[in-house]
Each structure stands twice: as C-alpha cells, then as structure tokens.
Amino acid sequence: MILLVRGDREYLRAPGEELQTDLGVLTVPEDVEPGDRLETHLGEEFVVREPRGPDLFDHFERTGAPMMPRDVGLVIGMTGAAAGDRVLDAGTGTGVLAAYLGRIEATVRTYECDPEFAAVARENMRLAGVEDRVDVRTGDVTDALDELAEGPGFDLCTLDTADAPSVVRRAPDLLESGGFVVVYSPFVEGTRDAVAAAEDVGLTDVETHETIQRRMTFDERGSRPDTRGVGHTGYLTVARLL
Q1: Between the CA of residue 236 and those of 87, 129, 132, 205, what are the distances in Å?
Q2: Stated pTM of the model
Q3: CA–CA separation, 78 vs 96, rounded Å?
Q4: pLDDT score of 226
Q5: How far does Cα 219 stand from its chain's mean position?
C-alpha cells in the first residue's frame, strides 16, 4: 500500500488501484516508488509516500477507541520491545499496538473476543503489511492460557482487557525471565487491580503512569498549551518477571 498525498489530502491505495477525486482520476502504477509524483487526467499532482505508523493510525478502520501512538511509544520504550521478540497481546481492537509491534519485526499473537472486530483487525494488519508477523485470533485469551503456558515463553505481554488482572496472575507461566507485562486501562480501578495482581505473583519493577500529552499553540499573542481536547488517555502499568 502507498499514500497519495496532496496538501492535507491523503489516500491509501495499492499498486494497480484507481484514485477518483474532484482533482481527477489516476491509476497507481505497479512499479510505483515513494517520492514519485503522479498526475491525474486533469494534470493535478500527487506525491507518493510510504505509509508509516502515524499514517496507518489515521487510515485504519476503527472498531472503537484505538491506543494512541504516544501510548504505543511508551510501551515500546518502557519494555525495549524489539525485532525478534515474541509478544502475547489481548484486546486487539483496531490493532494499532499489534501493528506497531509487527512493524518493528516482533512476532505477535493477539486475541480479540468480538469476531467482527477481529476481522477488521486482520484487514488492518494487511494494510500495515504485517499479516505474516501478527496472528489475530478470535477468542478470549483467558481460555488459551493453559495452552500458552505450555509453549515457548513470551518476551512481552500487552493487555487492554477488563480481565487483565487474571492474565497478570499467570505472567510467571507465560513470560521468559526478564519479560514484561503491560496493562493499559482507561480506569484507575482496573489499574489498581492489575498492580495488586502483579505484586501478588512476585513481579518486579511494578509501576504505573498516567499518560497525558498536550499540544502547544503558537500565535502572535504568545505560546501556550492548546485548550481543546483532553490530554489524558489512560493508565499504563508495567511489571517484569525476575
């Protein structure tokens, strides 16, 4: 997939597909490359760009509130997730986190209870080009814990589900030594339960952060944080197996 960009317009297309807009029609060449400039039949130009994480976040089909890129960055930064890691993920949703992890060449198995959400996530993995590294399973991860505990350990377990504490309690059976578990929750009550579960089973380096980010506004009057929107997105709890 490539992006066709003109000003603030962006269109996601595959080679061979057609773009139809008020600026004209063009067919994306099979040999298209990032940086190419393509013209519609009306002579209007679009620049070709390879989609990266933030672009995919904007173009994924959504099945709910996705994890924000800044939260994904915290997960990767706080756990050191890297190429070759094995990741167990639950609460796939739109699949933003799974896609980002797949794009850094981690191998991800992710569980989504809602079959329709899982189907959308699989299509999003295809758009991201990571369908060979991200295995989207339909079902509840808690039903698969015994099976997962018998296999090779995971380097990272990421949870965005209401029953995350029950999975955290199985972390010693699921993780490799030194592996991390991360729980994302929009509510502090679920966060407290996840922290308690991590401490109960002896995980170390347990810490929780509220994720807040504010965009800055610059104009002729001065500079200040933007007053629109809410900076809070959720709580991230990170713990580690000794």
Answers
A1: 17, 27, 28, 13
A2: 0.90
A3: 17
A4: 84
A5: 33
Give residue limits of the domains in the chain. 2-50, 55-240
CB atoms inside a 10 Å sphere around CB 235: 21
CATH class of 2-50: alpha beta
Half-sphere exposure of 74 (CA within 13 A, CB side): 21
Q: What are phi and psi of 57, to 5 degrees?
A: -55, -40
Please tell me the predicted confidence (pLDDT) of residue 41.
Answer: 96
DSSP state at residue 170: T
Token pair listed for 25: 């029609």
Q: Please tell me the distance from the alpha carbon of residue 182 to that of residue 202, in angstroms, as a whole number.
A: 15
Which parts of the chain have pLDDT scores under 70? 229-230
Tokens of 173: 């059976």
Instruction: Supply the pLDDT for residue 163.
Output: 94
Cα of 58 vs its chain's centroid, Å: 12
Q: Check residue 147 and give its pLDDT.
A: 96
The token pair that represents 41 in the structure block: 């039949």
Contact (CB, 8 A) for 114 and 182: no
10 token code pair:
């962006």
Residue 97 and residue 63: Cα distance in Å, rounded?
A: 14
Whether the domain at 2-50 and the domain at 55-240 fall into the same CATH topology:
no
**Contact (CB, 8 A) for 65 and 54:** no
Q: 55-240: CATH homologous superfamily?
A: Vaccinia Virus protein VP39 (3.40.50.150)
What pLDDT is attached to residue 229? 66
Residue 55, classed as helix, strand or coil, is helix
Q: How many CB atoms lie within 10 A of CB 225?
A: 11
**Cα gap 129→220, rounded to integer Å:** 43
